[in-house]
């Protein structure tokens, strides 16, 4: 930013004895006169001199009565909100100064907005001359979608002529402090028309804004917004995604997928192609809180991770926090993926039909009662059976296999009053996967929630959520006489109340959350009348998790912004339960059981409290560069017990309790963000260090499924990770794109007092997802306004594996001898994908809008290793084999039609 | 769970698209650089055996290990007895029978490698075993899915009921399966083809049959008893069966599935002997065997987890390398049953193998074992 200051040159005659001109009391005669005339009178009367350019003050008149007040007080009022200020170097001399920086910036911003044919709306609040000197005024308001009336959290609000910028809070509210006067406010949100407000304000004002979704892609705006936002948002490690952005990336088999997009973000890795879940900053997959409409989702994958359970057509927006997790979220150590469903259209009916290679989807939404009640329904299902049956495979007869899944959402929103909205959402997803008529894996998520948003006053709002999330899986296996079903169930009943309160430069949010968990960790039942399988039912587990939280987002000054908060979680496991007491100081095993304790129904077994401070600070170095720092502590009370690298549907969630302490994660992050060349480029770099206590891992040879005493098979230790994430993006022009590079490491250590309580003899070993180098490149070339050539390239270091080193025979049993845990690595992963996106015409009024996506996945057909497994080549000699999920180039076509 | 895990053939999950499986190589040290010990003492009368051998490289075509000769191994008890092992074959060392393993006594070995490095095993106590109260079996019809179609793969499932008299909390039960079946071949019918359909009758000498020139026309006649027509074949479990806590009801184990016996023309040529040995093992042995079990059970699981290192109880005394393995002790209680071919729900045609049975069946002998009842 260029600054200039024009000061008149002075030639001063001094009158040392006289009264300071600024202290001269007004007598009331000046009222109604032009300021220039008043100053001339004062010069004559008090033998003083005023230095100024006449045009600066020609429009200023003295409207108020200043009798009895000093001249300085009159100047303060009259110059408030203008570029003028004053100084008195000598008692009889007053120099009026003109700092035009703000005016220049204002004019530049306005000219730019008009030049880009943006609609500029003008509003005036108060009159000049009423603002005391030094006092800032506050512009606040609520940003909503013009159609759905839904608040738009995360909307970026920038004062174009200053260095100030904020983003709207969870309820779509924003508040920004500035000098009185003329300012240009810009409201931007991904895929929405930018709104420019020309505000002349001399008093606090409320400016509510409605944004309109862009019917076609004006990506320059979208990307610019994202870049500018990273600089000015307070929080470090936060990414806002919209589904339109996701849709343009090249996709596997034409299936647009949210989680795959998340996996391309800096600091995020995945263990392989079909891995469900993702690893954030060296954390395990269970350390990610995945929420859909505020409800936790425990398995977000279809077909073991080929797709996620989120239908892109039903998603409104997605917030992803990998650092600086806000106080309202908790319970997972690494990240939060907060997915919000679209609201129905309150005005008219419309929808979308999509056909991909694997799935088809339909989404319909519209008003039940215009401007009052809206509904949206979406359904996505697969016809992949034909695909499986058409594959030539050496793995038996795939024709007897079957893959089926669906996910469906219904959301009804009702505006009870203009300030009260009720949303009721139902969601269901189900997977069934059968292998050659052998084993069938079935898993499901069923969520239901009701949410009430209420605006108590302009500055105080609240949201209340009540809901239930059900997750479970069943595994059917065995022949007639051994037919068995293995089941796991987890029910979470959740209630929460959150409030947002705005006072001055503070945006305060606070609330309470409570969840009751009911787990059935394992039930084995015979699946046929002839089956000899014994019924085994592990004891149910019950737990309550509650938390209170409060946070204040505080604009300390134009440049600095601080968000600080505290979350206090409590976790309590409850009876009924029968638990073993183990001899103190000895490894937990059946052999060291000293007694058994019974807990009655509802009786507390173990309670944990935590204190989770959250801090985020941003300092704008200039209007286009900022530094940010963040610290957060998070307690995680639920552990995913798994001894596979990827999430498998037979993994078990294990609550903390008598045997397992909660995981405690501390994360520090520091970042630098810059927009270069008028936002054409943006650059960011974040450093992080994360330390997690009490992570859970399995002992060598552990048997986890249907184990009544799972505490004897698991150990708790520590993990830590650190890294640097760097991102460079070109945000405008025909060619746009980004390049991310992450260097990070992730380690674990389980050093117990004895060998059996240690892993790898207590030595430090890299975690399963320790991938030091990660490069992600994405680009888009706009061939025309409707044709885009897009691509991405991804590279990451091969992840660690444990491999057999030798074969030997023990007691006639051929055995392999394995290396210490994770001491070897699979080959590096890299892949290039390309796509051509052809969009419909860009007229706003049209019957429908169709988009074709032609994509090539894995262009150079690299056989990237997904997993390494071992097969007996000859008796006992286990040879390592690599499995490449996608071993060839995958072309695909998908079509989406919006009506 | 073994069955369950074996069936977790996730491969088809990924075969959904274009999954492919290829061998992969790691830059890892050769398996032959690792040295292993496999030894045991029980309350059975000796001699007791310790095997000392090198690991097999992963690119080897065979699982035959190469023994290490020239080591000095001594057996010790906590009662002060000791007895040296003598090398009876390459890498195979045996006691002479002076020490008889006794319940309640702890035993360990000292090992001196040919290069002078010394090792010792942690003392392992022989704990009294419970006993198998009954062995039951159940026929199960099954098909195996092969690329060329379904083939029958029927089995007998073997279950035991057992009692555990051991109350030591650091003891575990292992059921070891030893199967023996009698199977026959017809080496007298061996032919050597010279061209097309033309052949000579070339009965194996051990068959006792010869082409009798006296009869002429290439007729065979029996001159001696066949010495390689009937074999007694030993089979072993592929994964150790260990007591899991949830299986026991008090001191009783009910209906514990031990093993599956494949029903083929060879295994049910006449009858099959099922021997279950119940032994009580120490925590050390349990931990070692448990890792082996995890590895074997997870072997066909594509998402198999690292089964971990089976390190055992051999510790270095004066050595700069490791020896891996276990010298363990247990008392053994045995019970055996026979399943006759006649108990099959269908008849099985005889197999016509024209080679000496010892060539066909691994772990076979033509000498009738002492325990075999005709």
Describe this structure in words.
With 899 residues, chain A is mainly β. Chain A is elongated and about 115 Å long. Residues 1-18, 216-228 and 391-397 of chain A have low confidence and may be disordered. With 374 residues, chain B is mainly beta. In chain B, 8% of the residues lie in helices and 44% in strands. Chain B is built from 4 helices and 29 strands. In chain B, the strands form 7 sheets. In chain B, strands 2, 3, 4, 7, 8 and 27 form a 6-stranded mixed beta sheet that branches. In chain B, strands 5, 6, 9, 10, 11 and 26 form a 6-stranded antiparallel beta sheet that branches. Chain B is globular, with a radius of gyration of 24 Å. Mean pLDDT of chain B is 83; it is low at 1-18. The chains are: A mainly beta (899), B mainly beta (374). At the A-B interface, strand 49, strand 50, strand 54 and strand 55 of A face helix 2, strand 1, strand 2, helix 3 and strand 27 of B.
Features:
heterodimer, A: mainly beta, 22-stranded antiparallel β-barrel, five-stranded mixed β-sheet, 8% helix, 52% strand, B: mainly beta, six-stranded mixed β-sheet, six-stranded antiparallel β-sheet, 4 helices, 29 strands
DSSP strand content of chain B: 35-45%
Judged by helices, strands and strand pairing, the structural class of chain A is mainly beta
The dominant shape of chain B is globular
Number of strands of chain B: 29
Overall pLDDT confidence of chain B: 83
Low-confidence segments of chain A: 1-18, 216-228, 391-397
Our estimate of the beta-strand percent of chain A is: over 45%
Unreliable stretches covering 5 or more consecutive residues of chain B: 1-18
Helix percent of chain A reads under 10%
> What is the first-to-last residue Cα distance of chain A?
45 Å
């Amino acid at each position: 930013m260029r600054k200039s200051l024009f000061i008149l040159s002075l030639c001063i005659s001094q009158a040392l004895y006289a009264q300071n001109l600024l202290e001269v009391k007004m007598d009331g005669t000046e009222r109604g006169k032009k300021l220039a005339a008043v100053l001339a009178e004062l010069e004559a009367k008090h033998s003083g001199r005023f230095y100024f350019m006449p045009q600066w003050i020609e429009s200023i008149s003295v409207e108020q009565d200043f009798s009895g007040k000093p001249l300085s007080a009159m100047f303060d009022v009259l110059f408030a909100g203008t570029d003028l200020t004053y100084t008195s170097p000598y008692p009889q001399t007053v120099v009026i100064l003109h700092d035009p920086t703000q005016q220049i910036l204002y004019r530049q911003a306005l000219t730019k907005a008009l030049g880009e044919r943006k609609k500029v709306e003008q509003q005036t609040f108060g009159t000049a001359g009423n603002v005391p000197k030094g006092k800032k005024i506050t512009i606040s308001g609520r940003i909503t979608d013009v159609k759905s009336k839904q608040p738009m959290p995360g909307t970026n609000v920038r004062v174009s002529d200053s260095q100030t910028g904020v983003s709207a809070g969870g309820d779509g509210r924003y508040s920004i402090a500035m000098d009185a006067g003329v300012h240009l406010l810009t409201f931007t949100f991904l895929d929405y028309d930018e709104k420019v407000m020309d505000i002349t304000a001399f008093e606090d004002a409320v400016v509510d804004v409605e944004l309109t979704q862009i019917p076609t892609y004006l990506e320059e705006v979208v990307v610019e917004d994202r870049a500018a936002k990273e600089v000015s948002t307070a929080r470090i490690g936060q990414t806002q995604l919209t589904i339109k952005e996701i849709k343009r990336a090249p996709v596997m088999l034409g299936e647009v997928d949210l989680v795959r997009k998340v996996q391309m973000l800096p600091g995020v890795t995945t263990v392989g192609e079909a891995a469900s879940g993702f690893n954030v900053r060296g954390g395990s997959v269970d350390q990610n809180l995945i929420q859909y409409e505020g409800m936790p989702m425990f398995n977000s994958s279809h077909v073991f991770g080929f797709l996620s359970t989120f239908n892109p057509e039903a998603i409104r927006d997605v917030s992803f926090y990998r650092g600086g997790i806000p106080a309202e979220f908790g319970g997972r150590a690494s990240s939060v993926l907060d997915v919000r469903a679209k609201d129905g259209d309150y005005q008219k009916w419309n929808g979308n039909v999509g056909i991909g290679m694997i799935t088809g989807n339909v989404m319909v939404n519209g008003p039940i009662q215009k401007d009052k009640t809206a509904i949206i329904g979406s359904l996505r299902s697969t016809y992949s059976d034909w695909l499986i049956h058409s594959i030539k495979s050496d793995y038996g007869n795939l024709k007897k296999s079957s893959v089926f899944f669906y996910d469906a959402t219904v959301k009804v929103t009702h505006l009870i009053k203009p300030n009260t909205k009720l949303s009721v959402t139902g969601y269901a997803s189900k997977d069934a996967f059968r292998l050659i008529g052998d084993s069938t894996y079935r898993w499901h998520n069923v969520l239901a929630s009701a949410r009430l948003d209420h605006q108590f006053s302009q500055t105080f709002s609240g949201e209340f959520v009540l809901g239930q999330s059900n997750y479970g899986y069943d595994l059917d296996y065995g022949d007639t006489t051994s037919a068995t079903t293995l089941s796991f169930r987890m029910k979470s009943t959740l209630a929460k109340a959150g409030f947002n309160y705005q006072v001055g430069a503070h945006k305060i949010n606070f609330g309470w959350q409570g969840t009751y968990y009911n787990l059935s960790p394992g039930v084995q039942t015979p699946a046929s009348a002839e089956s000899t399988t014994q019924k085994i039912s592990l004891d149910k587990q019950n737990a309550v998790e509650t938390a209170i939280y409060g946070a204040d987002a505080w604009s300390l000054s134009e440049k600095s912004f601080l968000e600080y908060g505290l979350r206090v979680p409590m976790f309590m496991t409850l009876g009924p339960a029968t638990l073993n007491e183990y001899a103190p100081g000895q490894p937990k095993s059946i052999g060291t059981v000293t007694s058994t304790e019974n807990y009655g129904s509802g009786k507390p077994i173990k309670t944990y409290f935590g204190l989770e401070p959250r801090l985020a600070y941003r300092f704008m170095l200039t209007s286009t560069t900022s530094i940010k720092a963040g610290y957060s502590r998070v307690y995680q009370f639920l552990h995913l017990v798994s001894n596979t690298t990827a999430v498998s549907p037979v993994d078990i969630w294990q609550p903390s309790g008598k045997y397992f302490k909660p995981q405690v994660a501390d994360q520090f992050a520091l970042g630098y963000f810059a927009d270069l060349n008028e936002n054409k480029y943006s650059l960011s770099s974040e450093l992080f260090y994360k330390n997690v206590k009490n992570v859970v891992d399995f002992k060598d040879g552990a048997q986890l499924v249907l184990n009544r005493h799972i505490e004897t098979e698991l150990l708790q230790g520590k993990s830590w990770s650190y890294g640097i994430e760097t991102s460079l993006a070109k945000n405008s022009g025909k060619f746009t794109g980004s390049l991310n590079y992450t260097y990070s490491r992730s380690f674990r250590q389980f050093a117990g007092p004895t060998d059996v309580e240690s892993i790898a003899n207590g030595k430090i070993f890299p975690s399963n997802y320790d991938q030091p180098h990660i490069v992600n490149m994405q680009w888009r070339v706009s061939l025309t306004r409707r044709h885009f050539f897009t691509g991405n390239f991804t590279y990451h270091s091969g992840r660690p594996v444990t491999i057999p080193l030798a074969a030997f025979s023990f007691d006639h049993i051929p055995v392999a001898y394995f290396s210490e845990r994770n001491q070897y690595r699979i080959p590096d992963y890299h892949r290039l994908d390309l796509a051509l996106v052809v969009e419909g015409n860009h007229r706003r009024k049209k019957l429908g809008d169709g988009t074709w996506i032609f994509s090539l996945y894995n262009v150079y057909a690299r056989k990237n290793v997904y997993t390494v497994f071992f097969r007996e080549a000859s008796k006992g000699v286990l040879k390592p084999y690599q499995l490449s999920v996608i071993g060839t180039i995958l072309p695909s076509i998908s079509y989406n039609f919006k009506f | 769970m073994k069955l369950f895990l074996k069936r977790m053939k996730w491969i088809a999950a990924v075969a959904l698209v274009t999954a492919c499986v290829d061998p992969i190589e790691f830059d890892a040290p050769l398996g032959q650089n690792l040295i292993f010990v496999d030894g045991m003492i029980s309350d059975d009368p000796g001699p007791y055996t310790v095997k000392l051998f090198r690991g097999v490289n992963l690119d080897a075509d065979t699982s035959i290990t190469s023994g290490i000769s020239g080591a000095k191994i001594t057996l010790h008890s906590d009662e002060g007895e000791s007895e040296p092992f003598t090398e009876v074959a390459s890498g195979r060392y045996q006691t002479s029978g002076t020490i008889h393993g006794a319940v309640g006594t702890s035993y360990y070995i000292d090992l001196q490698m040919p290069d002078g490095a010394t090792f010792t095993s942690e003392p392992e106590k022989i704990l009294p075993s419970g006993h198998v109260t009954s062995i039951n079996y159940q026929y199960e019809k099954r098909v195996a899915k092969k690329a060329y179609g379904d083939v029958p793969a029927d089995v007998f499932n073997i279950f035991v009921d057992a009692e555990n008299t051991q109350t030591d909390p650091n003891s575990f039960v292992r059921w070891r399966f030893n199967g023996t079946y009698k199977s026959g071949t017809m080496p007298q019918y061996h032919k050597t083809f010279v061209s097309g359909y033309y052949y000579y009758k070339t009965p194996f000498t051990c068959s006792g049959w010869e082409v009798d020139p006296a009869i002429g026309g290439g007729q065979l006649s029996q001159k001696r008893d066949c010495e390689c027509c009937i074999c007694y074949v030993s089979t072993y479990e592929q994964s150790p069966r260990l007591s899991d806590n949830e299986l026991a009801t008090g001191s009783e184990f009910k209906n514990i599935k031990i093993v599956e016996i494949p029903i083929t023309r060879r295994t049910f040529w006449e009858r099959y002997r099922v021997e279950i040995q119940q032994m009580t093992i120490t925590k050390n042995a349990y931990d070692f065997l448990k890792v082996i079990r995890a590895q074997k059970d997870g072997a066909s699981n594509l998402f198999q987890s690292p089964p971990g290192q089976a390190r055992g109880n051999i510790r270095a005394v004066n050595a700069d390398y490791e020896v891996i393995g276990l010298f363990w002790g247990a008392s053994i209680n045995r019970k055996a049953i026979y399943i006759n071919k006649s108990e099959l729900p269908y008849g099985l045609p005889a197999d016509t193998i024209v080679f000496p049975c010892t060539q066909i069946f691994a772990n076979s002998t033509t000498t009738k074992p002492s325990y075999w009842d005709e």
